[in-house]
Amino acid sequence: MLSIPFAFQRAEAMLYRETFEDEVVHLRNSFSMLEEACKEPRSSRLFLKLLEAVLKTGNRMNVGTIRGGAQAFKLDALLKLADVKGTDGKTTLLHFVVQEIIRSEGIRVADSIMGRINQKNKNRTPEEKEEDYRRMGLDLVSGLSTELYNVKKTAAIDLDVLVSSVSNLSEGMAKIRGLIITEKLCMDEKSMKFVTAMNCFVSYGEKKLKELQGDEAKVMSHVKEITEYFHGDVSKEEVNPLRIFVIVRDFLGMLDHVCKELRSSKTPRSPNPLAPFR
Question: What string of DSSP letters covers 83-122?
Fold first, then answer.
């Protein structure tokens, strides 16, 4: 080993080359998942419908106050829906919002397959039809977590680790370039083979790194865009740039829980659903 020039630096360089491709694939997959997560909330009709229902419910409850007539709200408010409880101490505002949307979505689904549903419901009572709407709407709302799959996965990502991984790859490549220059200064037969092999790898690796850095810049731009879309101006003090995905993930967990409760409940709808919250 001692007879080999720069033996330990060479070993480090070869280890870097051996793990380089796996690291690039992992980072690319992570950036791809982030990019899809940025698209999902804005392209999900059901998620946007839920936000609309939350806004309308808030305005109905705040009629006549300075909070009434709001045009928008920050997603943080979604996590507070379960904190607003009715007089029974069990029913939350989220229950009400979900009940409202599962009925409207159930009717929409029924209308989209009007012929078959009408034929099936021809001899059914209004109560039975309402239950059909409720069931179909509940099935649809329960599937939102699957629809926003990448959002939930992204919420568990440590963005700092991803960014530092790209930086570490760049630093490792710079060390190899420096080693090649050093080897050339004291070139012998043993060094020639190493330099030739590493030069080929550096040409390939630098191209991959440039693509990876481009992916990183593009994804960070998308993250900023989606955050501004739902939260307005991005605060410079925001600790976690992916916080918006954490909020949506936690909300989906609450939504799934409410859907399970409603699926097992046969409680009829109140003529005045907001009455328990007055």
Answer: T-B-TTSS-BHHHHHHHHHHHHHHHHHHHHTHHHHHHHTT
Supply the Cα-derived Rg of the chain in whole angstroms.
28
Task: Write down the mean pLDDT value for the chain.
Answer: 83
59: which residues sit within 8 A by CB, 6+ positions away?
Answer: 68, 69, 70
With CA atoms as reference, report the closest residue to 208 among 196, 216, 197: 216
In whole angstroms, what is the distance from residue 183 CA to residue 274 CA? Answer: 77
Q: CA 146, 150, 151, 152 torsion: positive or negative?
A: positive
- Using CA atoms, how far apart are residues 70 and 83, in angstroms rounded to an integer? 20
The pTM of this model reads 0.81
DSSP state of 186: T
C-alpha separations of 79 from 48, 154, 203, 251 in Å: 16, 18, 49, 6
- The encoded tokens of residue 12 equal 């480090």
pLDDT tens per residue, range 143-165: 999 999 999 999 999 989 999 99
193, amino acid identity: K
Q: How far apart are CA 261 and CA 94, in angstroms?
A: 12
What is the total residue count of the chain?
Answer: 278
CA 93 to chain centre: 24
